[in-house]
Amino acid sequence: MTTIIDGNAVAEEIRSGLTDAIDALEDAGVKPGLATVLMSDDPASQTYVSMKQRDCEEVGIEAFDYELDPDTPADELYSLVDDLNADDDVHGILVQMPVPDHVDDRTVLRRIDPAKDVDGFHPENVGRLVAGDARFKPCTPHGVQKLLASVDVETEGADVVVVGRSDIVGKPMANLLIQKADDGNATVTVCHSRTKDLAAKTREADIVVAAVGVPELITGDMLSEDTVVIDVGVNRVDADNEKGYKLVGDVEFDSAKEKASAITPVPGGVGPMTRAMLLWNTVKAAAEAEGVDVDLP
Ligand code: NDP
Fold first, then answer.
1. Could you tell me the pTM of the whole model?
2. Ligand 1 pocket check: which of 119, 139, 193, 222 to mutate, most ligand atoms within 8 Å of Cβ?
3. Are 113 and 148 in a shared domain?
4. Which residues form the Tetrahydrofolate dehydrogenase/cyclohydrolase NAD(P)-binding domain (predicted)?
5. Is residue 9 assigned to a domain?
6. Mean pLDDT across the chain
């Protein structure tokens, strides 16, 4: 029987596990704080940011909300980041991507104090992760590791195919899985749009992580029996319903489920974990900044 990996349930476990750490911080007079910066009128970005703020409030993290008009000069965004870097109540800073074209996203990411970079995208944190000394693991791939652990899938010695090589999902996912660590030690193949025969690669895999952004690219016939399938993709496709669209992943769920030993659904798989791991990183940032020992779930 195929296990449907319940991301909502695992995310809830992470959130409730974080409350002990948040209580320990409170005992030490510290309230973790996350600043979110939104510089976009894209409804999806606005929804993501408001969900992150709501998550913070639910677990006892202070959410500092900054919204800049998309026409704001880039320098104003950079000086806001400088102010947040200097603000002791702010332990984590998240600038919601994408930013408008006149803002260089790499400059923004480099401007954030690496100790407050709870997305884990600053080059210092990327380097630390690759070197096996991660400070903040990027939220989505870290969430994938937690999902695999939740259903006792061992990565040690497993052949993992990561489809996608973005800086926010594919690359950090591969880097985490090759680390000499209990949740690493995998043999990882990274595929992308220039990969010659994607199906040949995915058929060899014990675990497939799809982070492509192409609706239902990975189909059941591209998988071997008993593959573990993690679908990171979130794609809107037209649907005959009230909204006019529905969300689908990068994996064709129905055909893949026939082959998989375990599979994440979309929605309700990786998405809730990305949000939970942002809280995790924020609590870690607060504990490290304030020198408080906490146990993280
Ligand atoms: P990007 O667009 O940055 O990267 C997509 C990657 O997929 C690229 O490496 C690209 O290759 C590769 N790719 C594209 N088409 C193909 C193909 N036909 N065959 C093989 N590889 C292909 O996307 P992201 O990594 O940012 O996001 C991927 C998906 O995950 C999206 O649907 C996004 O919405 C979702 N997402 C979900 C999150 C969550 O919390 N659930 C969080 C972040 C993202 P190349 O490099 O050659 O162009």
1. 0.97
2. 193
3. no
4. 138-288
5. no
6. 97
